[in-house]
UniProtKB/TrEMBL annotation:
Biased composition (Basic and acidic residues): 381-396
InterPro entries xref list: OSBP_sf, Oxysterol-bd, Oxysterol-bd_CS
Pfam families for the chain: Oxysterol_BP
Keyword Electron transport: no
PANTHER family reported for this sequence: OXYSTEROL-BINDING PROTEIN-RELATED, OXYSTEROL-BINDING PROTEIN-RELATED PROTEIN 5
Protein name: Oxysterol-binding protein
Region annotated Disordered, chain positions: 1-22, 373-437
UniProt xrefs under SUPFAM superfamilies: Oxysterol-binding protein-like
PROSITE patterns per record: OSBP
Protein family according to the UniProt entry: Belongs to the OSBP family.
Amino acid sequence: MCVPHRQGHQEGDSQGAEGELPAGEEARSFLNKLSDYYYHADLLSRAAVEEDAYSRMKLVLRWYLSGFYKKPKGIKKPYNPILGETFRCCWFHPQTDSRTFYIAEQVSHHPPVSAFHVSNRKDGFCISGSITAKSRFYGNSLSALLDGKATLTFLNRAEDYTLTMPYAHCKGILYGTMTLELGGKVTIECAKNNFQAQLEFKLKPFFGGSTSINQISGKITSGEEVLASLSGHWDRDVFIKEEGSGSSALFWTPSGEVRRQRLRQHTVPLEEQTELESERLWQHVTRAISKGDQHRATQEKFALEEAQRQRARERQESLMPWKPQLFHLDPITQEWHYRYEDHSPWDPLKDIAQFEQDGILRTLQQEAVARQTTFLGSPGPRHERSGPDQRLRKASDQPSGHSQATESSGSTPESCPELSDEEQDGDFVPGGESPCPRCRKEARRLQALHEAILSIREAQQELHRHLSAMLSSTARAAQAPTPGLLQSPRSWFLLCVFLACQLFINHILK
């Protein structure tokens, strides 16, 4: 079961001002940080149904820019993910009653590669990609390069957009004011409709003022033709000037209203996560940082890294290579792909709901519901886990020194595909593989209700038979001089009982 993401320092937004800023760890994993790009995934939902290709490209570009303004206060780096570490979450779209799911896994340690998959089949889009983190040291500055690309696909159109990422540049490491900027040229390209957006994230020049911080410029082209130009600041206002237009218009701004409209993130509760899920894996480091205990945070971090090195030595001795659980490497393209990706368009006549279970994205379909209606009579057998997956069920609630993260393939716990209680909409029907405890409880409740309804219907049929007999007797008695059947107190009592049962049944089945 997913719950709304806990608010706190991880959710802080910074306006990107210059000045003395505290440096240190950002209390979350890099896999979690990559999910910041989907708080405004509703823009992609709009783009998926936009008929005009140029307007579609602008919506994609607006969504791309929406992923940068949300950042921690100060200069902080996220945790380097452990090999096999996973992170999963989702966002609920109230406008379309759908969910955008995010699945990420650290698939390689040398070099460090993070693979991710995002899917919202109901709204018609998915994103797949991988990022290889690299760093370059220049004396008093450091650049963190994000080498890789992501592919956005609109399912109903079979239309792909290829996206690249800027790099992060930190100045003032040894002396001076420490600042963090984004730099480099990025592209968003759709080969099918021949549109391309080019953006340049500009570093502050040596003699630049405060207005030259976080500047961005770019253009949208179709072949050799320039359709529009963009300028502004990636953490503030971005303006667009269409070709043939005499003035610029506001294209994107992270205003207070926009921030309030961003989708709400839902994560799996800590106690339901496996040992290699990000929040549970780093919980003791995060707790120490939140308390300001840097010494304890360093100890806990060292324990995790040492456990990872020990597992690597064991694999080397046993000649057992590491195999990611949720992603696989294409031997031809050398690209990482989600094992359970589904690019088929959403069929409203066949598909009911998309949900995530154990890191696997599934779609509940009408055929499955028809086959699973027997769950009202019997809950069905439970899917039992064995081997390493069962071992990962054990709690990892003790700090280092009491327990260490164990070797696994990054499997995730059985979780209810629904979100929080306030957002349940009845999409999911229990059944299939490994129902969670909450689903089993719901199935038992529905089974009991079904049995009660059957017994009430039997009583209703019996009362109908009595009433028919009573009415027949009344018709015969009306022709005789003797008093009618309904003048008997017993008959009136039975009639009142029937009417009361009928009202109760109508109330239940309403």
